[in-house]
What does this fold into?
Amino acid sequence: MAGDRQPRGDAAPGRARAPRPGRWARLRRNLDALRRDPRAAGPLVRGAVLDIWSTRGGGFYGLGYLVTFSILEVRLIVSNMYESDGVVSFFTSEIIDYVLRLGVQSFVNGVLALIWPLLLLDVMDVWALPALLAGYLLFEHLLRARLEAWFPELRAAKLQRRSRGD
It folds into this structure.
């Protein structure tokens, strides 16, 4: 899953990093962990969410990306639920969709989430600019310190990016 990614630049100078397990191997490992202990879902989801957020900068833009991506994914799943004939057909179609269509749609949702300020501009028209400015100021002056206290991984990722010069 996304929470299993190793941060870039973690290998010692002159040494290559060990290859990261493939997507299916990570998925299987995470499913095995959930089967052994269903309480592992919380840390897995938390890790995936923080990984997505930190790869987009860990700040206001990254939070906007995360919220937009989450909304688009929830809308995709809910629309698939309404289109199905029942519970069994929903889960069957979701499994097939995950393998075939959902991967492509998730990619499209990821691209749309990258341009979330433009989507906001489309929805709010001219009021999006003051809303973005207010959101940014609110985030920087009131929320960032609290969020970094709750999620120290964000601060660590930010410090690592600064040390690499990103």
User: Anything to note?
Assistant: Residues 5-9 have pLDDT under 50 and may be disordered. The helical segments are 23-36, 41-55, 60-83, 87-99, 101-114, 116-124, 128-150, 152-164.
